[in-house]
Amino acid sequence: MYLIQDTQSNLEQEVIKIISKKISELSKNQEKVILAIPGGRSVSGIFKLLKNSSINWKKVHIFMIDERLVPINDEQSNFKLANEILLKYHPRENIHPYTSNHTIESYTRELKSVNLHEARPRGILRQIRTA
Fold first, then answer.
1. What's residue 130's pLDDT?
2. In degrees rounded to 5, what are phi and psi of residue 63?
3. Is residue 2 part of a domain?
4. Cα–Cα dist 56/31, whole Å
5. Which residue segment(s) compose the domain that 14 sits in?
6. What pLDDT sits at residue 21?
7. For the whole model, what pTM was predicted?
8. Domain harbouring 68, CATH code
9. CA–CA separation, 70 and 98 (whole Å)
10. Phi and psi for 124 in degrees, rounded to 5?
11. CB 3.0 to 4.6 Å from 65: which of 12, 32, 36, 126, for a disulfide?
């Protein structure tokens, strides 16, 4: 886990560097890479920077790791925020929202059906959310 202490803007820039590097490394040897993204409003800056990054999104499958149990188009939905800023610009088949139709088991099966490797900057994002 990374621990970076700085301003929100500088933290977001560092997160993008780490995510981009990790996805690039994994993409060299894997057909698919999983990026698990958290919910919450504090990561919207990271989503904006990811949207404009040089990541090869064709290989990246995105899963939610902190979703509210509301419809994905609800104002309280973490997916809705991520979709409006970032996800709608990427291949639809690579986006895996957690919906009210999922059980933990079915979402786990979906994750495993894609790939077991992941780029998960969860610790980094947790620091930003609490900063």
1. 36
2. -120, 150
3. no
4. 12
5. 8-130
6. 92
7. 0.77
8. 3.40.50.1360
9. 10
10. -65, -50
11. 36
Q: Which residue has the tokens 């904006």?
A: 48
Buried b (16+ CB within 10 A) or exposed e, 81-120: bbbebbbeebeeebbbbbbeebeeeebeeebeebeeebbb
Distance spanning both ends of the chain, measured CA to CA: 16
Mean pLDDT, consecutive 10-residue segments, the chain of 131 residues? 77 90 90 86 89 89 83 88 91 89 84 63 40 38
How much is the pLDDT for 7?
86
Find, among 108, 113, 99, the residue nearest to 32 by Cα.
113
Residue 1 lies in a domain: no
User: Which pLDDT belongs to residue 22?
Assistant: 92
Q: Reduced to 3 DSSP states, what percent helix, strand and coil does the chain have, rounded to the nearest 5? A: 50, 10, 40
Tokens encoding 118: 């992941």
What was the pLDDT predicted at 124?
A: 39
